[in-house]
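INFO  loader      accepted 1 record
INFO  loader      residues=286
INFO  predictor   begin
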Amino acid sequence: MALTRHLGLSLALLLASVASAQAPPHRVVSFAPSLTETVVALGYGDRLVGVGDYASWPPAAARLPRVGGLYNPNLERLLALRPDLVLVPSPMPRVEAACASRGIRLETVRTETVEDVEAAARRIAGLLGEPAAGRLLATRLHRQLESVRARVKGRNRPRVLLVLDRPASGRLQEVVTAGPRTFLDQLLRLAGGRNLFHDAPRRYFTPSLETVVERRPQLILELRPGAGDAGSLERQARKEWGKVFGGVEAPRVRVLTEPYLVVPGPRLGRAAELLEAVLHPQQGTR
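INFO  predictor   done
INFO  writer      dumping tokens
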């Protein structure tokens, strides 16, 4: 009888454990804006209980408790939120160890390329127990991007220098650009442009100004998310780049401050449409 009761209790505990493991998570922490936005775009933003320091959209998610960034995670705050799923965009050993010590599920979901972003929608939806929502979001994004690709087919493709970061000093000798195997390089090509450094050996780097001038960009596109008045920033950037090119014909310069341009998430379609409009201003986007 005692053995029967013991076996019955063990079976009950096993079944409870299996049910718990299969239950979809309802307390999610995301360390990356791209992953946060994906959870929200899937329709499950109400499951988010914490976000990384750089979350800015949507406003409701941006108001959630902050758990630090990739290099400075706040483990105490993370654990206090009692998550049942933690999403990270790349390996975070300290977070991984903390989650393992508490039996918290942690998943690494990369969003470095356009294909990654579409796959992330499906994977996160699966983790949330809602795979259909992931298929719908990935399909919607794919169609939006393909619509842009179809519209720019056959158009002249301007050579573009992407500027992703400027030092506090504003020195053009220290700007950062994107090379191949990045979502920004992909978006630029998809929207009808040619990355000035499509053949670079690194994904992100600082080019020499001499090389920039030698490669003769037709458009310099500075991405300064949330920087303020794009018009005044653009006027200043034109003056600065004009000095670099001197007697050489200066390229067109645009400054874009929309934050979603640098977030590899579900708003990539919107980013592609904006790039299309900037690259081909006389054509329109529809």
